[in-house]
Specification:
Distance between the termini: 43 Å
Radius of gyration: 50 Å
Number of strands: 12
Shape: rod-shaped
Number of domains: 3
Number of helices: 12
Largest sheet: 5 strands, mixed
Structural class: alpha+beta
Length: 445
């Protein structure tokens, strides 16, 4: 119930919200960065010393371009292509009264931005200062008149810087918002390590209402279940040790009696045949008592051993179950009981069983009847097929005159064997009626 109440929020929704918030913050910082850099670089690029410095830089770049390609003054197409790449620069190349290249006359493929710059690049120098530099061509010298809106050379830098700010802001904001859930994941990891190494009963604290909280709750439930199972196993081991010790001690008394009776018989210390027969019967009774104790001791001891693999066989279920129950029928009848068995095999079926283990279940049930049931009243056993399940029901009335202390180990082992056969065994004991209900999977033919 606790786990069902926990999940009110979706981790996916939280992460999506964090992404949206982080993107919003990053976009605000991106716009702020772009605006700031634009304003700053606009003012920076308008300073006269910067314009002169940039003009000289681009004049040198043009000179390098001319020298690399060995241009002449009449190679105006090559100069125009250079000017197209550096579109924010206006050029005028002339010598005396001859104009070889003018950006406004030869560069006709202006972009939208360059159209807006035409008035600023006027040669009267009212908007942007112009600078003259000597320039050398392959066929002679000329004068270069250059001006420009050099702010646009920083466009790439502004874009890169703004994107960097956006990315860093987004990541920082996203990590900041997710830090609690990331920290909770680490807390769950450390909690698992504590459960595994230091503190098996440790419980992970529940924080939030999302899938991580549910995961922590499930881990706590599973760990509690494992610890409870370990505790029960330890209690059973301790109980087994106590019972084994008690049975081992109790065996001494009947064993001593058997030895005494055998000594009497060996030394002929009896008055007549009747006394001798009584000694023999008493020794036989004590021997059977010892046999029962040793069987119980054996059952207890094998619980500590590792469970062995069963030898599975697929058998004709009708024949196998009928045979096992018939053997139980004859055993009870020979001991003076009144078995009333009813077989209801409407369909042919097969079973996957371990023959020895399966027989052991019915041996334990039969032994339980012999020990505790009233032999004067019927012992009922019915079988019925329901779907792909075989149901076996045994019912008897307990004897009021018999009392034999039982540890229940036989029935416990029978339940384990039935579970290994993917079935279920239920026992009901109200002090008067004793019932065993077994369900087993079958394969209908």
């Amino acid at each position: 119930m606790l786990i069902e109440k926990l999940r009110k929020e979706s981790l996916y929704s939280q992460v999506l919200l964090y992404i949206i918030v982080s993107a919003g913050v990053a976009l605000v910082l991106y716009g702020t960065t772009v605006a700031y850099l634009n304003d700053y670089l606009q003012e920076y690029s308008k300073r006269s010393e910067i314009i002169e410095q940039d003009s000289k830089k681009y004049a040198q770049r043009l000179q390098d371009f001319i020298e690399v390609h060995e241009l002449e003054r009449t190679d105006i197409d090559r100069i125009a292509r250079w000017n197209e790449i550096n579109w924010y620069v206006s050029l005028k190349v002339y010598q005396n009264d001859t104009v070889y290249f003018d950006s406004f006359l030869h560069y006709v493929d202006w972009t939208k931005e360059s159209d807006n710059l035409t008035d600023s690049f006027g040669w009267d120098g009212t908007s942007r200062p112009c600078f003259e530099y000597p320039i050398h061509f392959k066929d002679g010298d000329a004068i270069l008149l250059i001006s420009g809106c050099f702010f646009y050379q920083y466009e790439m830098m502004i874009s890169f810087a703004s994107f960097t700010v956006f990315l860093v802001a987004f990541l920082f904001c996203f990590i900041f918002l997710c830090r609690r859930r990331f920290g909770y994941i680490e807390e769950i990891h450390k909690g698992l390590e504590r459960m595994n190494r230091e503190e098996p009963t440790h419980q992970i604290s529940l924080k939030g209402n999302d899938e991580l909280t549910c995961l922590a709750a499930y881990i706590n439930v599973m760990n509690a279940s494992i610890q409870n199972q370990r505790r029960l196993e330890q209690e059973m081991i301790e109980k087994n040790r106590e019972i084994i010790a008690a049975i081992s001690h109790d065996i001494r008394t009947p064993l001593t009696s058997v030895i005494c009776y055998l000594d009497f018989l060996k030394d002929s210390r009896y008055e007549n045949q009747e006394v001798m027969n009584r000694y023999i019967e008493n020794a036989r009774t004590r021997a059977y008592q010892i046999k029962g104790m040793t069987e119980e001791l054996f059952e207890r001891s094998i619980q500590k051993e590792k469970q062995k693999e069963l030898n599975w066989e697929v058998l004709n279920g009708n024949e196998f179950v009928s045979q096992v129950i018939s053997e139980m029928f004859f055993t009870l009848r020979e001991d003076g009981f009144h078995p009333d068995f009813n077989f209801d095999f409407k369909y042919a079926f097969e079973m996957k069983v371990d023959v020895i283990a399966f027989r052991r279940v019915f041996d334990n049930i039969c032994s339980n009847i012999l020990k505790y049931a009233d032999s004067t009243l019927p012992v009922l056993l019915t079988t019925e097929i329901k779907g792909e399940t075989l149901e076996i029901m045994e019912k008897n009335i307990k004897s009021a005159s018999r009392y034999v202390e039982s540890t229940g180990i036989g029935l416990y082992n029978s339940k384990k064997i039935v579970q290994q056969h993917k079935g279920e065994m239920k026992v009901k004991n109200d002090g008067y009626y004793f019932e065993v209900h077994i369900t087993l999977p079958i394969i209908l033919k």
